[in-house]
Design a protein that fits this description.
Helix content: 40-55%
CATH topology of one domain: Cytochrome p450
Strand content: 5-15%
Radius of gyration: 21 Å
CATH superfamily of one domain: Cytochrome P450
Number of strands: 10
CATH class of one domain: Mainly Alpha
Largest sheet: 5 strands, mixed
Length: 414
């Protein structure tokens, strides 16, 4: 099995620690590695940047060449390669003008004025969760704390009625509605995922029809009104997919950043003491944690034209894995890259939020949720520590994501 297959279908050893492999790939010529299946691995920061900045060559329109993706996104067979704009493919899997048109509609939920408007609501959500755990003095941080924040926040932003929020959050957070992992998912995984997504689609279909008939000033109402005003048609099934993907995307980086940041602070007590004493350092801790343990390790790109990177010829219709996790650990860009250091120069120059036109749309909201989470935790809780007997284990199943399986912690109220 080649290096790329080791990453796509990883061993436990690779999942636990891919970084020695990344270093070998980055320092061994040729610097772009190819598998027997014709997939190319891009790991160096300069090469990752080149790919991200040339979407006309390295396309994110993966649907036409990915089994099962058309069915998942309800793309009719005769529309799979439709050149019309907008296409039936959702924003994360679109390119060029098509991508920009769709992204512009979703942008309304993360404009600067909206981010400011969300702050009191996010603080309320975080404090409600702290109220639930403060007397116990311990929790499994990922599920009992971190994951509940974007679940509650995004449902309020979208406009889901409070009485439906808990049940819908469970359905939506059970897995991705479709993403980079589709290409390598098993038939059984796809079947389970499709059944869950169909239930979610039915819920949003009714909700969006209701909001279209009676707008309420929430994001869904605004989205549908903006779509009609701009295009003169609703494209309801496309809008359902966009909203589900937007919600699903709100979990990954947000939850993983919270868990990784807390883990790094607990295991670096001097840095923890500094950050608790000076909350203005919280954003630096978040960014450095995202760099050291990048939640989305790689994304796929489809090659639209013959090209060349680092002297390696890449033929048209090849498939590339663009390794953000490797680029963020490259010693040529980050000295002592394996070290968690909030005083690092150019601390925001990592690629953990993506790069180029497909950079994470929700990054401003994810950063805000993380910042407020730690501000409120440090205001009300102290003496954070790993629970006795807890061992660091990485979630299994895909090397595309880098996350702790769980994070058992203890703490004291102030």
């Amino acid at each position: 099995m080649s290096l790329i297959e080791d990453l796509v279908y990883p061993t436990k050893q690779i999942i636990e620690n891919p970084y020695p492999l990344y270093k070998d790939l980055q320092t061994t010529a040729p610097y772009v590695h190819v598998s027997d299946k014709g997939e190319f691995l891009i790991t160096r920061p300069e090469d990752v940047t080149f790919v991200a900045m040339h979407p006309e060559i390295f396309s994110n329109l993966l649907g036409p060449v990915t089994p099962g993706m058309a069915e998942r996104f309800r793309v009719p067979p005769d529309k799979i390669n439709d050149p019309a704009i907008p296409t039936p493919w959702p924003t994360p899997f679109s390119d060029g003008e098509d991508h920009d048109l769709k992204r512009s509609l979703l942008q309304s939920c993360v404009r600067n004025e909206k981010i400011v408007e969300y702050e009191p609501m996010i603080r309320r959500v975080v404090n409600e969760i702290i109220d639930d755990v403060i007397k116990v003095g311990r929790c499994e941080f990922k599920q009992q704390f971190a994951r509940r924040i974007p679940a509650k926040v995004m449902l309020e932003v979208i406009g889901v009625p409070p009485e439906d929020a808990d049940e819908l959050a469970i359905s939506l957070s059970g897995g991705s509605a479709g993403g980079q992992g589709i290409r390598h998912a098993s038939a059984e995984e796809r079947k389970v995922n499709d059944e869950r997504v169909e239930n979610v689609r039915s819920y949003f279909r009714k909700l969006m029809q209701d909001r279209f008939a009676k707008p309420q000033g929430d994001f869904i109402s605004t989205l549908l009104q903006d779509k009609m005003a701009r295009d003169g048609k609703l494209d309801l099934e496309i809008m359902i997919t966009e909203v589900i993907l937007l919600y699903g995307a709100s979990f990954g980086n947000t939850v993983d950043a919270m868990a990784q940041t807390l883990y790094h602070l607990i295991t670096h007590p001097q840095t923890m003491a500094r950050v608790q004493a000076d909350p203005t350092l919280i954003p630096k801790a978040i960014e450095e944690s995202m760099r050291v343990e990048t939640p989305v390790q790689w994304v796929g790109r489809r090659v639209l034209a013959d090209t060349e990177i680092a002297g390696v010829k890449i033929p048209k219709e090849s498939f590339c894995l663009v390794m953000y996790g490797a680029a963020n650990r490259d010693e040529s860009k980050f000295e002592n890259a394996e070290v968690f250091d909030i005083d690092r120069p150019r601390i925001n120059s990592h690629m953990a939020w993506g790069y180029g036109m497909h950079r994470c749309l929700g990054a401003p909201l994810a950063r805000q949720e993380n910042r407020i989470c730690f501000e409120e935790m440090f205001r009300r809780l102290t003496n954070f520590r790993l629970a006795p007997g807890w061992q660091e284990v990485r979630a299994t199943g895909s090397s595309a994501h880098r996350d702790l399986a769980d994070l058992q912690i203890e703490f004291d109220p102030k």
